[in-house]
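Weekly sync, protein design subgroup
Attendees: M.S., D.O., the rotation student, P.L. (late)

Item 1: inverse folding check
M.S. brought a backbone from last month's batch and wanted to see whether the design step gives back something sensible before we order anything. D.O. pointed out we never logged the input encoding, so this time it goes straight into the notes. Structure tokens as presented (297 positions):
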């Protein structure tokens, strides 16, 4: 028999898991770019917003599977191109402070957000789930949206795939080597700028795809970019730079704080969120699972 208190918050717990998995898809790219390539990219949230608008523009309020998959494809391409462009414009700043990188990428984010507002207006654009995922299933006597369950599954599969890529493949070894000893990587004939370009492209593509996947939850509207960027930065700080596992744990923690906090302590959600961030910074300044070789900044 399910306890009454658990039954009351069960849907909020599932919502926290779904939001956490979406935040993971967004934040893991930011974590890898900042933690491994040492570039602070504040345009990450604007790329997410662009992905959300792509999902609405291609699929509309009631997307078909074809429209949904095409939107993901276009968002992936947009993310790859955006990541490549960001890698190129931040390359001259590689030996300068993170403040210079932050100012540059923040300026790019503001320009992109303004262009999106001019193109799509200031209204909230609602996006539905594709057929088959737009209904609900019953779990422990509670109806729950099928799409959010699918999003949890996508997040888990992606987390495992990225962890295996970074930790168990030659590609991951090259990325880790670039972080730990760039001179040695260059000495064996690997162009570290291409490694940075690839990581930037993948990270930005994940952010744009997260925007499409987040459309049925958040929709698309001006200001969403700043909201998700703040959450992604909190996830990265809590989880630790350059760590797939840290990004997943941090995202799930923040997802639960966002969901359960708003359900149980609506007025104190922000306090709990940033209080958790402060606690982690005091106890573990490098985050819970910072990747080896990534120093605290």
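Designed sequence read out in the meeting:
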């Amino acid at each position: 028999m399910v306890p009454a208190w658990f039954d009351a918050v069960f849907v909020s717990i599932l919502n926290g898991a779904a939001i956490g998995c979406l935040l993971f898809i967004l934040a893991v790219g930011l974590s890898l770019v900042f933690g491994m390539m040492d570039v602070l990219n504040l345009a990450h949230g604007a790329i997410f917003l662009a992905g959300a608008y792509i999902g609405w523009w291609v699929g509309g309020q009631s997307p078909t599977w074809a429209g949904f998959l095409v939107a993901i494809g276009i968002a992936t391409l947009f993310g790859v191109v955006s990541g490549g462009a960001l890698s190129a414009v931040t390359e001259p700043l590689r030996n300068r402070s993170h403040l210079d990188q932050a100012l540059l990428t923040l300026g790019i984010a503001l320009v992109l957000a303004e262009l999106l507002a001019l193109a799509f207006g200031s209204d909230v654009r609602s996006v539905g789930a594709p057929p088959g995922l737009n209904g609900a299933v019953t779990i422990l006597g509670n109806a729950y949206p099928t799409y959010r369950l699918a999003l949890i599954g996508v997040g888990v599969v992606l987390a495992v795939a990225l962890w295996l890529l970074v930790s168990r493949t030659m590609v991951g070894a090259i990325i880790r080597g670039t972080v730990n000893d760039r001179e040695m990587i260059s000495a064996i004939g690997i162009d570290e700028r291409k490694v940075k370009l690839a990581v930037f492209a993948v990270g930005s593509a994940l952010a744009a795809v997260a925007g499409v996947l987040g459309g049925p939850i958040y929709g698309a509207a001006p200001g969403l970019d700043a909201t998700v960027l703040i959450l992604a930065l909190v996830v990265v700080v809590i989880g630790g730079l350059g760590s797939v596992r840290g990004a997943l744990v941090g995202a799930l923690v923040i997802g639960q704080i966002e969901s359960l906090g708003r359900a149980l302590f609506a007025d104190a959600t922000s306090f709990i969120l940033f209080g958790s961030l402060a606690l982690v910074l005091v106890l573990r300044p490098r985050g819970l699972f910072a990747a080896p070789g990534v120093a605290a900044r």
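Discussion: The beta strands are 136-139, 142-145. DSSP finds eleven helices and two strands in the chain.
Action: P.L. to compare against the previous round before Friday.
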